[in-house]
Amino acid sequence: MSLRFQALRGLTETSTEAVNGSSHQLNGSAKITGIFAENVFTLSKARQFLSDEAYKSLNNSIKAGQKIDRSMANQIAHGIRAWSETKGVTHYTHWFQPLTGTTAEKHDSFFTLKTDGTPIEQFEGDALIQQEPDASSFPNGGLRATFEARGYTAWDPSSPAFILETGFGKTLCIPTIFVSYTGESLDYKAPLLKAIEALNSSAVDVCNYFDRNVTKVTATLGWEQEYFVIDEAMFNARPDLVMCGRTVYGHNSAKNQQLEDHYFGSIPERVYAFMRDFEKEAYVLGIPLRTRHNEVAPGQFECAPIFEELNLAVDHNTLLMDVMDRVAKRHKLRVLLHEKPFAGINGSGKHNNWSMATDTGVNLLSPGKTPKTNLMFLTFFVNTIKAFHDYADILRASIASASNDFRLGANEAPPAIMSVFIGQYLTKVLNDIKQRVGDKFDEQDESMLKMDIHRSIPELLMDNTDRNRTSPFAFTGNKFEFRAVGSTANCANPMTVLNTAMAATLKQFKSDVDKLIQKGDKKEIAIMHVIKEYIIASENVLFEGNGYSEEWANEAEQRGLPNVKTTPLALDAMVTEKAFKLFIDNGIYSHSELEARHEIELEKYLKKVQIEGRMMAELATSHILPAAIRYQNLLINNIKGLKEIGLEDANYTSQKELLQILSRHINEMSTSVTAMIEARKKANALENTREKAIAYGEEVKEKFFDKIRYHADKLELLVDDKEWYLPKYRELLFMR
Ligand code: ADP
Ligand code: MG
């Protein structure tokens, strides 16, 4: 029996088993507060397990965002081990985020032997602070050629140690950065931390115009993660899902999302059991999940936490993706994080809700209630728009990936055009400022600051309709929402770019305002003038209409906004003079680091397309064509038989017609597959990575993927169902 039919037969059984099997685990702890961060070495646990001295040192490092003091490292390490041993932990690992897109771990045991052979458990400061995994098998974009292969991981104490429980035991995880021996970053976290620091420094300077007490500005992130859930046996029967994370073939089912009956509907039992289970693990790990619901497409769901400090939020997202994957397997389910697992129905994104908060407790993107706080809000609001405007191409590059290409601009997600949505009311506010602040600032202008922007927020949220859903970057009342980020992405990359762009823009703002103040302008007047200038300079990027529409694509072109649809070309923006200047000036990336990252992203792209191309060819020749040919033979024999017994031609014209159609699809599919393989060979022969990636995109994917798929999907409809071994969309999406 084929895997498809086994999967279908087993479904009822697995489904009940999974629901029943997990229910007992859920009743154990009623309150989330009772288990929250149980497996995290929080400051309150540090208080318990560390000496006063060590605790203070750790606390200071966290506050200052610095590495921990070497002289305290042993004490801190011993405290962490003591705590983790109370939880039954035997191994530890430096947990990091290399540019592969997944997390990496290399486990070592506490267990060791003393020189005389006595077995002991030990965890020294050195092991806590720094490790030296072999960097050579992680992507390094050529950095390895010039530098040593070794890299090291170093603890970043702003993200606390935690214990990961898997079926096989418990491991103490130390969140670290990963850098080459000569200091080039090889991961997502190291540049993110630099960007957070750059933003802090520029934002504090600007805050001090309004409030001298601000000494720290923290970027905040609340992500919304979309995903699909399908049955594991069905998943296993689809080699394309196993290998590529998406279906390269599959005819739409008769019903998909057109009835809109899935969105916010009741969550299916089996998925609900899975959600409860992964949520519980998330809480234990200190991930503050808040929301769960069905998404638009059948089989699609979303979860979102309460926002946190950016670096921690990024760790929590990557950790959660891992947890979801593992817990799903326990439930005999699979989570699909791919941006577009199924053609013809909505894909998945990861909205990045972003803002900035001061250590005085102010959200800098929350409209003020007084003239002074209004001006502060406007300052950060307009600077964000300016940053997005000035660095739109680099932001576009930061969300580019082979899988996100399927989603951007497919009329279900924001287009590849980077624009900003701010709502009617704030549009009017910005227009007023533009028109009213003259060369000389006067009393009338001062009255503008008295506007009650805060009160307009309910109105703004009312405005929060379908329109803003189509925008890649929308202001939603007290934060901006970067919606074009893909569901598989590590948020660190887009967040690094956004925060760096903001840091650079605020720095420029400060310098522009100071110049006017030196010329004798009153501070508020100088600020208003620069705000006005920035509004004018960046208004091109503001768009309130339907981002999915063709008119917008045309208008954007007239406005001169870039609309780069594919990854290899979008990535060009990472290595322009502008990008080098932005990242080097702000201390985020060196020239060679940027070039390396560019190379890595291109390679990731082309390898993904290459794998998909191979998968398409393999499934075509080993699954689809054989099934179609078996059916073709059936028809041939049928027609032959009918002829043999002397039936008139007219009685089997439909069989003949069917045979003709079938044969045409078989033939065209088969020749397209051969041609695609030829195109791949040509692309492979190219030396230059960028050219190769473009060739894979244009000559392999664009020319052949849809074409081959068209015939395969037609064949799926024609061929006898029992000859078809790949689970169909209706089975993948609706049966669980
Ligand atoms: P929606 O966007 O679906 O209407 P919410 O507005 O409640 O939902 O928020 C979505 C996400 O935005 C949540 O993760 C939330 O914690 C986050 N969020 C809210 N305020 C901020 C903020 N100041 N900074 C960053 N994220 C925030
Ligand atoms: Mg949202």
Automatic annotation (TrEMBL):
One of its GO terms (molecular function) is glutamine synthetase activity. PROSITE patterns: GLNA_ATP, GS_BETA_GRASP, GS_CATALYTIC. Residues 188-624 form the GS catalytic domain. InterPro entries: Gln-synt_C, Gln_synt_N, Gln_synth/guanido_kin_cat_dom, Gln_synth_cat_dom, Gln_synth_gly_rich_site, GS_Type-3, GSIII_N. It comes from the Bacteria. Residues 90-183 form the GS beta-grasp domain. It holds the Pfam family Gln-synt_C-ter. One of its GO terms (biological process) is glutamine biosynthetic process. This is Glutamine synthetase. Gene3D superfamilies: 1.20.120.1560, Glutamine synthetase/guanido kinase, catalytic domain. Belongs to the glutamine synthetase family.
